[in-house]
Task: inverse folding
C-alpha cells in the first residue's frame, strides 16, 4: 500500500536496507552462542530460538523442537504425485487443521492437489488485481492492494513453513485453516474487493448515470 501511494524511493530504500540488515543480523546472532546472550537481554525467549533452530536444521531434533516441521515435511513428501487419498492419513502431524493444514493437503492429494490449490489462490489474486487496476477510486485501490497482500502473505508464509522454506509461525491458510474469525475476516475482505468491481461494472440492460440524469419524469394525466 505504501508502494502504490507514490512515496519516494529515497524513503523506501533506506527503510528496506535497514530491515534486511536487522533481519540478517538477528539470524546471525541466533546462530552464535554469544549472540543469543545478547538477544536474551533484549527480550528474546527460548521458544523463539527453537523455531529458528528447527528452521535452519529441521533434522536436528526430530523428536523435540523440530518434530512438527519434520512430520509436516514427511507428510507432504509421502503424498508424491497423486497423494494417498482423501481421509487416508498415515503421518501424524500435530494440530493438522490449523497451521499445518497444507501438510494434510500435500499428503492426501499429492503434488497435483497442492498445485491445484496454489493455482486457485493465483486466480483469486489475479481477479483482485484486475479490480485494483479497473477501479477509478484511489482509496479503493489502497484497500484492494491491502487485501491482496494480506492473502499473498498468509499463503506464502503458511505453505513456506510447511515445506521448511520459512520458520514456523502461527499463520493460517486462507479459507482452509480452522478458525471462524479468520474465515470471516477473509470473506469480508474479499467481499469488499468484489463490491469495488460492482460499482464500475456495466450490465446489459443498465443505463449510464448521464442517461438517467437526462430522463424527465412527467406525471400521467387522468383521462
Result:
Amino acid at each position: 500500500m505504501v508502494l502504490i501511494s507514490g512515496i519516494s524511493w529515497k524513503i523506501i530504500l533506506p527503510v528496506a536496507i535497514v530491515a534486511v540488515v536487522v533481519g540478517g543480523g538477528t539470524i546471525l546472532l541466533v546462530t552464535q552462542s554469544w549472540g543469543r546472550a545478547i538477544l536474551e537481554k533484549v527480550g528474546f525467549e527460548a521458544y523463539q530460538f527453537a523455531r529458528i533452530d528447527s528452521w535452519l536444521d529441521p533434522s536436528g531434533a526430530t523428536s523435540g523442537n523440530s518434530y512438527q516441521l519434520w512430520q509436516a515435511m514427511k507428510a507432504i513428501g509421502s503424498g508424491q504425485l497423486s497423494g494417498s487419498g482423501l481421509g487416508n492419513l498415515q503421518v501424524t502431524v500435530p494440530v493438522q487443521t490449523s497451521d499445518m493444514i497444507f501438510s494434510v493437503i500435500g499428503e492426501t492429494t499429492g503434488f497435483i492437489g497442492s498445485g491445484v490449490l496454489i493455482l486457485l489462490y493465483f486466480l483469486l489474486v489475479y481477479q483482485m488485481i484486475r479490480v485494483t487496476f479497473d477501479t477509478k477510486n484511489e482509496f479503493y485501490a489502497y484497500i484492494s492492494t491491502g487485501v491482496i497482500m494480506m492473502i499473498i502473505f498468509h499463503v506464502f508464509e503458511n505453505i513456506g513453513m510447511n515445506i521448511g522454506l520459512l520458520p514456523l509461525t502461527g499463520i493460517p491458510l486462507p479459507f482452509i485453516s480452522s478458525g471462524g474469525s479468520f474465515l470471516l475476516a477473509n470473506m469480508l475482505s474479499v467481499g469488499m474487493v468484489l463490491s469495488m468491481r460492482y460499482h464500475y461494472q456495466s450490465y446489459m440492460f443498465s443505463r449510464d448515470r448521464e442517461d438517467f440524469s437526462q430522463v424527465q419524469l412527467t406525471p400521467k394525466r387522468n383521462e
